[in-house]
């Protein structure tokens, strides 16, 4: 395709700005539309990023009727993702949906079905797959330095307290869903991304600190155990009450070596007597400006232009979200939950 792809951004929050920057700087795309409940906010966002040819919309239907819009990034609050993602797919627009793509199984199935039936390309905002540490770990795995993995752990520890800008709506079940869906799904996806195996069973414990001082409508802390095929174990801890700086610790154990964050020990290097420290960028900030949205968008645009499916498309994200939803069932019923969900 020789002409530029027209991009539309739904929402005007912090994460929308990262998608605007990524599409604006991509040589194959131009940001032509921003959707907001208030036209003035969309217009202000366009001015902020110097988008002279960008239109403001308050109606999604009207935006989707525009012939010069080819790709859409859904960056609105969580509870709107299914409805808006389905509308984009049915309008023939390729779509990136921020995580979580859905807050329940019905919505997850509905969005997945709409994208499959429309035949459009999709991607989900599991942007940490492009974090330099994650890419380094993939290279180490490809070299066989860890051997066969038997345990993978990733944790999402982020204190989302009352002074956090998104706290007022994120704390509500109708908007945040669960700690896993609203945040810890990044860690679940990381475990899946490193293992490349199918999850078979999930068990979950969850709680709030005494008295639930932050007034979450769901348990803001959880530990999830995941059994994958071949008996491989995974573990994800999520805490939204984390009284310390944001951290995203990663551990992989194999029969030839171990990775802990950016430290590597492997028996494939004869004579190694201590951890080898890899100088790279860690996923150690919750700020959206820290995350590699440029790479995610570039990958998505390449998939659109080449007509290929993304490794982080909605169909793949269904598996990450099913683990999160199964964990909630496990917590409520006090039992292991088999996957895939019926």
Topology (SSEs and partners):
Elements: E1 5-10, H1 14-25, E2 29-35, H2 39-48, E3 55-57, H3 60-64, E4 71-74, H4 81-90, E5 94-97, H5 105-118, E6 122-124, H6 132-142, E7 149-157, H7 167-170, H8 173-176, H9 179-195, E8 199-207, E9 221-228, E10 233-239, E11 250-254, E12 257-260, E13 263-266, E14 276-277, H10 293-306, H11 314-333, E15 337-338
Parallel strand pairs: 1-2, 1-4, 2-3, 4-5, 5-6, 7-10
Antiparallel strand pairs: 7-11, 8-9, 8-15, 9-10, 11-12, 12-13, 13-14
Helix pairs in contact: 1-10, 4-5, 5-11, 9-11
Summarize, please.
This protein has 342 residues and is an alpha/beta fold. It has helices at residues 14-25, 39-48, 60-64, 81-90, 105-118, 132-142, 167-170, 173-176, 179-195, 293-306, 314-333, and strands at 5-10, 29-35, 55-57, 71-74, 94-97, 122-124, 149-157, 199-207, 221-228, 233-239, 250-254, 257-260, 263-266, 276-277, 337-338. Helices cover 35% and strands 23% of the residues.
Uncertain runs with pLDDT below 50, 5 residues or more?
none
Count of folded domains: 2
Task: Give the helix proportion (percent range).
Answer: 25-40%
Task: Give, in spatial order, the strands making up the sheet with the most strands.
Answer: 14-13-12-11-7-10-9-8-15
**Major beta sheet, specifics?**
9 strands, mixed
SS strand fraction: 15-25%
> Which word captures the global form?
globular
- Looking at the structure, the CATH topology of the largest domain is Dihydrodipicolinate Reductase, domain 2
Rg computed from alpha carbons, rounded to a whole number of angstroms = 20 Å
Total number of helices:
11
Mean pLDDT score: 97
The name of the CATH superfamily of the largest domain reads Dihydrodipicolinate Reductase, domain 2
Task: Indicate the CATH class of the largest domain.
Answer: Alpha Beta
Structural class: alpha/beta
User: How does CATH name the architecture of the largest domain?
Assistant: 2-Layer Sandwich
Question: What are the secondary-structure elements, in order, as H or E?
Answer: EHEHEHEHEHEHEHHHEEEEEEEHHE
Give the N-terminus to C-terminus distance in angstroms.
41 Å
